[in-house]
Write a structure and sequence with these properties.
With 621 residues, the protein is an alpha+beta fold. Among the domains are: 119 residues, PAS domain (Beta-Lactamase, 2-Layer Sandwich), CATH 3.30.450.20; 88 residues, PAS domain (Beta-Lactamase, 2-Layer Sandwich), CATH 3.30.450.20; 160 residues, Histidine kinase-like ATPase, C-terminal domain (Heat Shock Protein 90, 2-Layer Sandwich). The strands form four sheets. A six-stranded antiparallel β-sheet has the order 7-6-11-10-9-8. Its EC number is 2.7.13.3. It catalyses: ATP + protein L-histidine = ADP + protein N-phospho-L-histidine. It is a multi-pass membrane protein.
Length: 621
Amino acid sequence: MTTALRRSFLLRSETARVAAAVLCAIALGAAALPWMDRHFQIRAGLQGIDTLNLSVAGLRGALDRFEPLPPLIAERPVLAELLSDPTNPALLARVNAELKQTAESLRASDVYLMDADGLTLAASSYLKELSFVGQNFTYRPYFTDALRGVPARYFALGTTSGERGYFFAAPVWDGAQVIGVLALKFTVDAFEDAWRAGPSELIVTDANGVVFMSSRTDWHFRTLGPLSPAALDEIRATRQYPPARLHPLDVTLTPITDRLDRVTIDGGSGGGTEAFVSASTILPDVGWRVRILSPAGPVRAQALGVLLFLGMIALLVGLAAALVLSRRARILDRLEAQRATQDLLEQRVRERTADLNVANASLRTEVEERRSAEHRLRQTQKELVQAGKLAALGQMSAAISHEINQPLAAVKSYADNAAMLLDRDRQSEARENMTRISDMADRIATISGHLRNFARRPQEGIAPVDMVAVVDDALDLMRARLASGGVRVGFDRPSKPVMAMGGQLRLQQVVVNLLSNALDATEHLAAPRIRVVLSPPEDGEVRLAVQDSGPGLSEAALAQVFDPFFTTKSPGKGLGLGLSISFNIVEDFGGHLRARNIDAGGAEFSVELPAAPPPQAVAAQ
């Protein structure tokens, strides 16, 4: 076979393989369409469950708000008085006015009072054209249940007002005897108006499958299936719904998962077939099932869009493969001419490989040197942190000495007085002096304990740390310097721990450095102020800010305030390492240290640290 014929055969063979691959990709995409359709249906259904839960919470909130009210209203003495004397015009006017005011304050549709025969004596709607006064509601189950002495509830279409509502009823007692019933009704139109604002449809059905509430008015009183004769008889007897409108919807439910269904409704809007992804939940004490219907059309469009996208990719891959094959054919034509130079090229490749091996060896040596340098740098950073602590202790030494000498002088004075009091047999006063001496010793022990903890080398890793305790310890360490400088410190101490991720001692060093800088910034002010702000966790972060009333920072200083050896202090008052060390400590904990000028004057340094996870999350891990 000649070279030209071999190239032609190879080209035809490769082209056939590319075409077969493209056809296979198209077939796989078509086969994957049901899976993708189901995937997007589940995703739409889960989004619908969130909306469903919010809607159910709204219904439940309204029911829970109104349910306890009728028994409370029924206890009003004036209601029993009117039931005992129903022809008294003064009592009747008073009760009507009270019920009207009650309905308006509770935002209820109607509040009305019925006697033992079901006749409505007074109602909040007594001034309206369609008033409940004079109507008899003995056919309503809520009346008969309440007349037996138990609170009752019911939902139905109002026979007087023509408005759907939920009814709560309670007995009105005269001693041990029920003499009447107090009922309260609230309408459901407001819930449906809110549902119509969303893209999905919501329906509420009773135990018989009758649609009592819906975002679609044409579904009101439709049924999800045929009603039994007994159910129809009960509806007619209680006048719960208009029987003429109880026509079944042509509904088909196909399970998708244990929580989701695909619902199709024939003869829907426009007379066509509508498809939805549905989820539902039950309110057992009410007897309702709330169902959300998310349109399935957009879901199928998403699945088809993904399939089209994959098809376009397959087409592009096929075109790319055809281009590659075309280039391959041209390359085969050039191969014959390149054979003569192949040996020389291989020799050059071997030489280049040897050069690369030498370069790689040099690069490995350089990497090892870099790692060693990083290790030495971390060791140096630890030494600088310790040196910074000792420097801070040196700056605080005079004030701390004064802080310790004061209780020591008090101890000596109390001891001398105690000896004199004992000589005079004044033991109770001497005992008080000994108690004060013990308090002074505790104070000195607290100061020395803070100094010991602050000065030692930290060995802790990253763990949950109470930032309130960190600020308290830092303020205790700086208390003497702050007092000697006449600085007024404001710290709105949170009432409970604020937990962040870090190390107790190193974070204490950061806060001490920030307080020291703020103290230096306000050194020459007549009324220096420092404010410490510790915010609770927000968006996974804890923020601690130290603000001063000093002159603030210039633009140049803000740009390099965290650089090593940069300082705005006078010579001999700092090496310019405190903020650089603090910056690196906070970065090691996964946080940020920032500086800015505040509008009220002065500078603010803020520490942002990752918030510690809740204890239950840590236990689960």
